[in-house]
Amino acid sequence: MRLILLGAPGAGKGTVAKLLTQLDGSVQISTGDILRGAVQAGTELGRKAEVFMKAGDLVPDDLIMGIMEKRLRESDCAKGFLLDGFPRTIPQAEALKTILALLGVQLDGVANIEVPRQEILDRLTTRRTCVNTQCQAIYNVRSQPPKVEGICDQCGSPVVQRDDETEAAISHRLDIYNEKTTPLVDFYRQEGLLLTITAPTSEGVVNAIRERIAG
Questions:
Q1: Backbone angles phi, psi at 136, to 5 degrees
Q2: Peptide bond preceding 87 in cis form (omega within 30 of 0)
Q3: Which end of the chain has fewer CB atoms at under 10 Å, N or C?
Q4: Catalytic residue annotation
Q5: What is the pLDDT of residues 187-202, one digit of tens each?
Q6: What is the rounded CA–CA span in Å between residue 129 and residue 136?
Q7: Domain residues of the chain, as ranges?
Q8: Chain centre distance of CA 182
Q9: What is the C-alpha to C-alpha distance for residues 115 and 11, in angstroms, rounded to an integer?
């Protein structure tokens, strides 16, 4: 499966991607995870990206495109890939189209996961993430808290609210998404690849994707 997952921050793209990887061995590729790992490691890319990420802004294309091309060329992508949170702008989508053409790869579809804004705010302001980059387990203080407050069940590392998941930062991210990323819906509709999905659960989204692609 070669799929792009579109949707605002908190729409559930990461959860859907993890469920889809279990179906056919496709790999999840999340620019957010890659960038956060670079920040934790203190790399040059991480230092540059951290300024934008803490402000809730998009990381510039020149920092993103090289990462993505290198990642798509890795051998584990041969079975398929799920692009989680990328592309985010029309220039990125056009650049990705060029990269995929060079690799001789065609997309199976672009799933646009639609979730109401208030629901996203409720989801993300209550989300907590393990700081261990090798774990990054996700919790919710209301619906799925860790067994010991502030401690990851899986690895024992601290569980924190990310800087980009405060209410102010989330609202800013959603405004940026609507301004810069929403036009991608029209871009991929014109490409004949768009699948708009409004299922209320991650499992429902996965089933809708399977039905649409299989069909």
A1: 55, 35
A2: yes
A3: C
A4: 13, 88, 127, 162, 173
A5: 999 999 999 998 888 8
A6: 6
A7: 2-115+167-214
A8: 15
A9: 6
Task: Please tell me the CATH code under which domain 2-115+167-214 is placed.
Answer: 3.40.50.300
Residue with tokens 């993505």: 68
- What SS3 class is residue 138? strand
Among candidate residues 91, 32, 20, the one with its CA nearest the CA of residue 67: 32
3 state SS of 25: coil
C-beta neighbour count of 140 within 10 angstroms: 15
Note the pLDDT tens digit of each residue in 46-97: 888 888 888 878 788 888 887 788 788 889 999 999 998 789 889 999 999 9
Report the C-alpha gap between 70 and 24 in whole angstroms. 22
50 neighbors 61 (Cβ within 8 angstroms): no
**pTM of the shown model:** 0.75
* Angstrom distance (rounded) from CA 81 to CA 92: 17
What's the number of CA atoms in the CB half-sphere (13 Å) around residue 194? 16
For the record, the structure tokens of 43 come out as 């790399």
Strand partners, 197: 113
